[in-house]
Amino acid sequence: MTINSLPRVLMIIPQLGYGGAESSFLRLAKFLSNYYQVTIGLMTLSYGNESYTNINLDIELPIIFLDNQEKLNLIFPSKLLRWWGMLQKLKNVKSSYDLTISFLSGTNLLNALSGSTSKTIISERGSKLYHTGITRWQKFLWLRVLDPFIYRRVDKIVAASVDYMQEIIQIGGKTITSKVISIEGGIDLDNLISQINSEPDEDIAKFCNQSTAIYCGRLDNGKGIDLLLPVFSNICKIYPDARFLIIGDGPLKKTIIERCEKIGLSITTSGDPRASVFLAGYRSNPIRHFRLGNVFLMPSLHEGLCNALIEALLTGIPILSSDYRWGARSILAKESDLKNLPKEPVKKTKTVAYGTLMPLPVTPQALDIWSSEILRYLEHPPMRRNIDECYLIASKFDIDRVGLQWVKLINSLIKHQN
């Protein structure tokens, strides 16, 4: 079969940043290009803040832009008209494709609104029901109006984790049950393994010369990292040598710096080893730094799955993760663990096969638990798991396995369409 005779797949996402959804999107697009003619569609090039926008990607796939923002802003500043323009362009573009896959809410809405001339799949990457970074009005609009409409219009809904499926069905109603499936993961396992022992950045290596807790992820509402700053301030009073490495960038960067300064927690953005907190910003291949830490922290309030947690698991570093909705259990717990876990997020620590589930860091009692557990891991870190064992554990999330699940789904829809 020649390249031009392969089915045509359009994959759309709002923009390409450094977040987990964007990384998963690109890995999937690259994998699917082995089976289909894949084109990437973006709303815009950047978030509007180039400091955390991945604009230097070497993408070997065709890219189209849906938003003609500059021209619209000159004449019609209305956001509604921008959306209308993107919708009309997507309708025209989709007519040339056999199937369209969208990631994230904005493009999922465009995908649903732009008609059914081709098959449509949406990928839901994170909870809105438990999202803390949107207003009550926005939550009402999405959960009661937009998401139910989207779910009725599309052919398939792919949840980022098994447990997340139940939220989607709760929002869309039982009539959409047959449309919803879960496909978990999409990491490049061999590439990550090759990076684990790569040379760390010099400033991070110097900073982590003391007992260090590590967080890696986007600095955004709901990630919970800002909630742990008072916890770490208290830890440093008891254990002055404690260090907190934050790898990542995002809109909360300024807020984190201001809060550290307000509570008297010394913070550096240049790697000063005398500081207690190092806000290291975006780093390529961050997994190479995880071996420098005593414990990996994931205090999220909500996720879809969480690629950073999978990467931490792969390195064998001890893990403390909030029992967020949804995905921590899929990554850290065995089937035998799940039978003994409560339906609701845990209120106390719960040790499972590959880490410790923690209460959401939103109450004084929960923060006290986080404080005592982080301190214990910093002072007496447990042994790390063997890398070969970690490889086997994480293999179910590898793109070579997960990608084939996408291929099977796409082929079933295209075959039905023809």
From TrEMBL:
Domain Glycosyl transferase family: start-end pairs: 208-334
Transmembrane segments: none
InterPro entries documented for this protein: Glyco_trans_1
Keywords tagged on the record: Transferase
A Pfam family of this chain: Glycos_transf_1
Gene Ontology MF terms in the entry: transferase activity
Name this polypeptide is given: Glycosyltransferase
Organism annotation: Thermosynechococcus sichuanensis E542
